[in-house]
Amino acid sequence: MAGQGSSQGSNQESKARPGQRRIAQWMRDYARLPGIPDEYIGPDGAPRAAWTRFFDAFAALSPADIERRFASADRHLREAGVTYRAPGETADRLWPLSHLPLIIDEADWQQLTAGIAQRAQLFEMVLRDLYGEGRLVTDGAVPAAAIAGSNEYLRAVCGVKPPGGRHLQLYAADVGRGPDGRWWVLNDRTQAPSGAGYALENRLVLSRAFSNLYKSMNVERVAPFFEAFRDSLRASADRDEPRIGLLTPGAFSETYFEHATLARYLGFLLVEGDDLAVSGDRIYIRTVAGLKRLDVLLRRVDSNFLDPLELDASSHLGVPGLIDVLRKNGVVVANMPGSGVLEARALLGFLPSLCRRLLGENPIMPHIATWWCGQKAAREEVLSRLEDFAIEGAYGRAVPGFSSHGPVLAGELPPAERDRLRQAITDRGIDYVGQELVRLSTTPVWEQGRITPRPFVLRVFAAATPQGWTILPGGFCRIAEQADARAVSMGDGARSADVWVVSDKAVSASTLLPGADSVRIRRIAGVVPSRAADNLFWLGRYLERAEATLRLIRALGTPMRDPAKGSSTALPSVERIQRLLVTWGATSQATRTNPARVIAEALQSEEKFGSAFSLVRSVQRTATSLRERLSPDAWQIITEMVDRLALQVDDDDSIVSAAELTLQELASLAGLAQENMNRAAGWRFLDMGRRAERAINTARFARQFAYDEAGEEDLDVLLTLVDCQITYRSRYLVGPALVPVRDLAVLDPYNPRSVAFQVATLNDHIAALPSLKEHGLIERPQRLAVALQATLTTAEAAALDVKTLFALEQDLLNLADAIGLHYFPHGPNASRPEKLTGLA
């Protein structure tokens, strides 16, 4: 028995050695930076217990398994299209996720959350006074200039009691460990804190890639925070089932992906300023059913851009009249306009005394020592030892007079620039603060098979609830690439990391799903904003345009690739295909003498607006504005199509293969929409876009290839383009003949590719949509669709000459335009005032 026990111990030791050896190899160059706190190495020089537990479990994975899981996380980010934009850029970047989380133990986290909750409550009380009685300024607790100097102090909302009772519904603070190892506040975010959606996405990716490790570490769940935040916004409204919108600047915003993620996860409507209208004391969403009341607006638009009537008149992002609605208590806005005034660094030096005055206690969490140069003593202190300070703007990120968007390190400036800075502070000190130089604490990151320390900033979120401030267990972590970074921005080559707050005891699973008895059953999907319906309609049209172009490319290229797969296309048919591609902007007139160049250009040209690549990019661009409405599977298909067509190929076989694969993906996308989308207005507009464009393209194909003198080759091309070869052969025992082909492609109501079928489907969709007028008369889109359907029902195939087909094509174009003008109005008629009365 003794020998057996010894053998068992030896086996356990041998199993432990590979993991320990791997950890030693990963850590061989890991060293805490001098004088800088580190998350892995504690103040005593030993690894922290939570990190030791993590690396022991991490090392149990084989190197191949680790790399596979890393690749899985990267693939998910790419396929899901998780992106961001750096400040000043127009192109999206793939989200850079660190493969290792930031780990914080439960006891350490409790100290951090106590400081965050106290700071959030202090800021709520300060805002209540600044926009209310103003006692803090009157009593001298805060200099008036420190408030009035900020562009975020909005006189338009002074005296306005915030609907819902709070100025702050969401607060965030950027924190790091100070020199003493405690958490310090680096920046406050009270305007419209960003990052919670990316924190959520980080969690989804990493918890899937390392599911067992995630569970074994007892990581606190983030769902209860988002549930509490959603419930708090719902409770702030003045009716039981409020309508909540998330106001975004639009698809060109640097963090638009996050807006869509939060809207989808929380069940909010993603809206832009143009989606909203004011009437009386309420704000409404423009929808395809008219105006619908909005109760709560979670804004991601800066305060000054919210109302061009009373704030920045040049803004196109806000809602004219919104401030007046706030005065009338007509909508809850989170956070309240003007709350960004507390982000001014000019106020930092006064916060400790304000905390004692308003809360009767000292600050739990310190912040960077700050001297506002608007006061004589502080200004003289900063100027006397300028080289020891980081100079920041008192009211914004930029330092006045300098191009840098971050701090200016006076000690690193050339003498002439340092003198210029000194003079600027002397002349107008109100615009500057001096802060002590702080180097960020570090956390482990994975780099090329090793673990190395990198500086980080952690953004912690607090949501106001009836029970007090709820803290997100984790947060939004940004990690710098440089070892000596003093600030981290996602535009500076940084990466992000998931944040694991770990416990020694098991953590109960949680979800945003409510109890079975707490939700009233519904069978409608809610309202569809006109902008979203417009985008869905054009998404359908772009998808169908791409399919039509790809079918032309395949028809032209298949005989070139392999004559056995099709007859040798006759010269007149080739000419007609090429002419269509030129007319559609897919290729140029100059390339028509070379069919191989035609199909290459029509498939992959970035310059030609009608090429398959350009059209698929239009699909992606339009889908970007609909991220909250598209499934991950749909987005993955769109991403794969763009990636495939972006890979340049030059031989005929590869071009046709790429076209065929993309056609298959378009069919998959159509199948997803048909089988998975709820049959509400959103699906209808997507399908209407496809049907309208398919009808137009089919009529155009028929005009080009089923003309009066068309031969068998032309008719065969038409059957291929409209995907009716099998149907025709099953019906007729002869080769393609003009009248039967015309009937099948244009008039057959049972053929899902015919013009008649598209018009009948459009008619059904339009009839199912709500009427926007109250006079009871048939509206223009339905009038045109009914007339078209009657024409097609009574027409005879023998009479469909080129002139008739051209007239049909024009009628279809007019119908598509009528749908857009009716359901997606722009300009002064967009508000549809006739629909205001009686709408909830």
Can you describe this structure?
This is Circularly permuted ATP-grasp superfamily protein/putative alpha-E superfamily protein. It is a single chain. The chain is of the alpha+beta class. The chain is built from 27 helices and 22 strands. Strands 4, 5, 17, 18, 19, 20 and 21 form a 7-stranded antiparallel sheet that branches. Helix 15 runs antiparallel to helix 17 (595-604), helix 19 (632-646) runs antiparallel to helix 20 and helix 21 runs antiparallel to helix 27. The protein is globular and about 95 Å long. 47% of the residues are buried.
Give keywords.
seven-stranded antiparallel β-sheet, 840 residues, alpha+beta, 4 domains, 27 helices, 22 strands, disordered N terminus, Dna Ligase, domain 1
Q: Please state the structural category.
A: alpha+beta
Q: How widely separated are the two ends?
A: 79 Å
Number of helices: 27
Low-confidence stretches: 1-16, 831-839
Over the alpha carbons, how many angstroms does the gyration radius reach? 32 Å
Q: Count structural domains.
A: 4
Categorize the overall geometry. Answer: globular
Largest sheet: 7 strands, antiparallel
The total strand number stands at 22
What is the mean predicted local confidence, pLDDT? 88
Query: What portion of the residues fall into strands of 2 or more residues?
Result: 5-15%
Percent range for helical residues?
Answer: 40-55%
Domain Circularly permuted ATP-grasp type: 101-480
Organism: Bradyrhizobium algeriense
InterPro entries: ATP-dep_Glu-Cys_Ligase-2 (IPR051680), CP_ATPgrasp_2 (IPR025841), DUF403 (IPR007296)
Protein name: Circularly permuted ATP-grasp superfamily protein/putative alpha-E superfamily protein
